[in-house]
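Why do we care about 3D structure at all? Because function follows from shape, and shape follows, mostly, from sequence. That is the central idea of this module. The next example makes it concrete: a single protein chain, its amino acid sequence, and then its structure expressed as tokens.
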Amino acid sequence: MTGTPGDGRGRPDRVYAPDFLTELFRNPLDPGYADAAARRRERQTPPAQWRRWSARSVTLVVALLLGFLFAVAYRQTLEAEPGRSQARSGLVEQIKQRETETDRLSVRADELRAEVARQRAAALGGSEAARLHNLEAGTGLGRVRGDGVVVRLADAPQNQDAVTGADVGPSRVIYSDLQGVANDLWAAGAEAIAINGQRLTAMSTIRSAGQAILVDFRPVTGPYEVSAIGPGSMRDRYEDSRSALTMRKVAEDTGLSFGVREAEDLTLPAAPDPRLRYAQPSVSPTPSPSGVDGSVSPGPTGSRTSPSPSGGGR
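And the structure:
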């Protein structure tokens, strides 16, 4: 049996079968429920064109907001750039002035040191002046000349990352490398050592401040040359040292430059006069009586205890 023809809404005609189970599986939803669900979807779902306009509007608003924020940030950056450039230029100018002043004072200090040495040699006898000169040479406070060894270290060249192409920082010489070279040169028999013209003494320090290396609180830059004056066997003994073997391995792995060569007639400058500080004995406390007769209690050995000095001098 067939039902009524279609109702003009695009739905097919409902076909009625004589078998109830066949009809149930073929048309599980009653036409009235189907019409109600369709009307509900039409009321709740906006048209496709309205949805497209809504998405475009939101995208446009977000793009305008981001553009406004970028414009404000760019304007603020441009406004602050002159101030930063001026501050940077001022700092660079101050650094250059201080370096010039430091160099001038260093030259003046060398001149005065030489004048003091001449006056002292004139006041002392020949043997006393020679003895004083030997003592200054041994302590690093006098200028020395002689044959020796020069150890040269330099940073590896700049490299680029194979994936990103960005510059990768080179393998740098660090302060402990210079410490190891200097210590092993002393152990090899060096009598005087200087790093980039900075003479080492018993009170010298080699340390780092950020990426800078300081020798006696004075910055040194690469390439670094550690010059040492000593006996002829010094090079062979240093070649077998721990620092030499380590630096050769580092140079092979990272590209850092390391070399050892003999040098004739080296001249190492004198180190600045150190600022010595001396320990002073502590003030003796007032003894307190231990009895009625006013006698002082004896120490472990029977004598009065007395304070010892607070330490030795440097």
